[in-house]
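Shipment paperwork, digital attachment
Item: protein structure file
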Amino acid sequence: MNQSDGWQHMRSAPKDGSRILITIRQSEQGPAEVDLAYWSSGDQFGEEGWRASDSSPGEIFQYAESELKCWMPMPSANVGRASFPSAWEGEDAEELGGSGI
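Attachment content:
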């Protein structure tokens, strides 16, 4: 994985609840995408795992590990840039097993 563009392997992602950008793998549902997520240790609303940052009690969207390709820290605020970076589309150095379906 090319560290120069900021994307890092998911195994190094922080699991402290901080918000990060994630690349969701391409699937039959659509192309690779970038989302804002955080690690939840689990609570009365759902199990431990990666949740979309816009999840709310009763409406939790949780990602399976196999759906996530890589992560990067939130970029600093930049007034001239109003969008997420492009999803990382390089080849995986290693497969996580299965097709992610």
